[in-house]
Design brief:
Blueprint: H1 2-30, H2 36-58, H3 64-82, H4 87-100, E1 104-112, E2 121-133, H5 134-146, E3 152-162, E4 165-177
Helix pairs in contact: 4-5
Length: 180
């Protein structure tokens, strides 16, 4: 009988310890600390999604240093190929286009805007009077817009018309490289 009493005492102690452990675990389960791992999983997943979104947003900026280098090369090429260094090259190009399309370039005024010089470029405004047939004048304007030399056609004013010939006043703009 003595063994049975000792065994019961030991079992009571074990049950009490288990009950205390059970109460502690239930308290932990319902406390904010009990859900730390679940919250962490959600937080990790959200951070992963944010990282993917940021990587997608950064996509266009990847390799920016190579893009800037390439843009500088293209700009240098554009300046060298399409912008004249001397004002006489502008007159020569317009004269060549006029001759190619049977248009007479009767008058041309050039106005360099020296006060507006920017980034090694000086704006040059050109006012030209043209005489020729309609088809030749239309082809002239088209050729100026497609010319290797860079021209902006600002305005075209139609003048007199006599015997199939028309007079046209054209305002153009280009840029000249300064210091070349």
């Amino acid at each position: 009988m003595a063994d049975l009493r000792v065994t019961r005492k030991k079992l009571r102690r074990v049950f009490i310890v288990l009950a205390v452990v059970d109460v502690l675990l239930m308290g932990l389960w319902f406390s904010p600390w009990g859900h730390v791992s679940a919250n962490k999983q959600v937080e990790i997943q959200q951070l992963g999604e944010q990282a993917k979104l940021k990587m997608q947003q950064m996509g266009p900026y990847q390799g920016m240093d190579q893009k800037v280098t390439e843009a500088r090369k293209q700009l240098t090429s554009f300046y060298a190929d399409r912008l004249p260094g001397e004002q006489s090259a502008i007159l020569e190009q317009l004269g060549k286009i006029a001759t190619d399309h049977q248009v007479k370039l009767s008058q041309a005024k050039y106005d360099e805007k020296s006060d507006e010089q920017t980034a090694g470029l000086q704006p040059v405004e050109i006012e030209a009077s043209l005489d020729g047939n309609y088809l030749g004048v239309a082809k002239f304007i088209n050729a100026v817009e497609r010319s290797k030399m860079f021209f902006l056609v600002n305005s075209v004013n139609l003048g007199e018309s006599q015997g199939g010939m028309i007079k046209l006043r054209v305002k153009l703009e280009t840029f000249r490289r300064v210091g070349s």
